Amino acid sequence: MLEVKNISKSFEEKKVLSDINAVFEPGKVNMIIGQSGSGKTVLLKCIVGLHVPESGEILYDNRNFLQMKKKEINNLRREQGMLFQGSALFDSMTVLENVMFPLNMFSSDTRKKRRERALFCLERVDLTGAENKYPSEVSGGMQKRVAIARAIALNPKYLFCDEPNSGLDPKTSLVIDALVRDITKEYNMTTVVNTHDMNSVMGIGDHIIFINSGVKEWEGNKDGIFTSLNENLNKFVFASDLFKDVKHAHMSNMEG
User: Tens of pLDDT along 236-251?
Assistant: First the structure.
């Protein structure tokens, strides 16, 4: 289980996060939602160690990340898988070499075993046969799948995804969502997804927190979104006519 307690973060004079508390559970797709500039990306970066908060605790199975020494942090890195917004693949490496990268850094297995593990992960994301291609030779959706294969190469306990559907068409987004959901359940990972894609939230979100102007204003599940009285959440979620119609249909079904 991953827990953040009383996390606050400022940049110069500006407070970006104010006293954030949240629990992210294993086997669930935990979503952090909010509009651009809300602080959700800063929160995710604090959780993975790219930013250091001024106060609070970040607990990985009751281990305080903010008090860890270098060796402990390196051990924790083996438990973390990360899917970055732009895939962040190495252009000069083949698909297989990209997936092997974290294995080469952290695994003590033989090269043969590392290669077998990388090939297995590519098979898991339906990319068998693409291992010798370079990122520039595959589509954006395939690049995201390569990034997912790389993220799960070390069989992590925690998976972090920053806007995983950014730049993808709706059909490909559904494929990526399904992969994230299925891998989370299959490996009982604690998955944290930072997104403003409401299709993704309604499709695979198990546990959702809404951040507005650096403050956690709401927490719940998909059904709770439809009945929430939080004005800012409603403005964010139901800004489009599509989701207004979805809400109306959902409420009608509940009344029926």
Answer: 888 755 555 555 555 5
| Polymer length in residues for the chain | 256
pLDDT in tens, 53-90: 999 999 999 999 999 999 999 899 999 999 987 778 99
Mutual orientation of helices 111-124 and 140-151 as an angle, nearest 10°?
A: 130
Count of H-run helices and E-run strands, the chain:
10, 10
Where are the chain's structural domains? 90-155
Question: What is the pTM (predicted TM-score) of this model?
Answer: 0.89
Three-state DSSP class for 33?
Answer: strand
- pLDDT(116) > 70: yes
Tokens of 137: 């030779």
The answer, yes or no, to whether residue 192 has pLDDT greater than 70, is yes
| Residues 152, 251: Cα–Cα separation, whole Å | 38
Closest CA to 17 of 35, 40, 36, 51: 40
Q: What is the per-residue pLDDT for 85? A: 79
**Which of 76-81's residues contact partners 24+ apart within 8 Å by CB, and which partners?**
77/106, 78/106, 78/154, 78/156, 79/154, 79/156, 79/157, 79/158, 80/48, 80/156, 80/157, 80/158, 80/159, 80/160, 81/150, 81/151, 81/152, 81/153, 81/154, 81/156, 81/158, 81/159, 81/160, 81/189
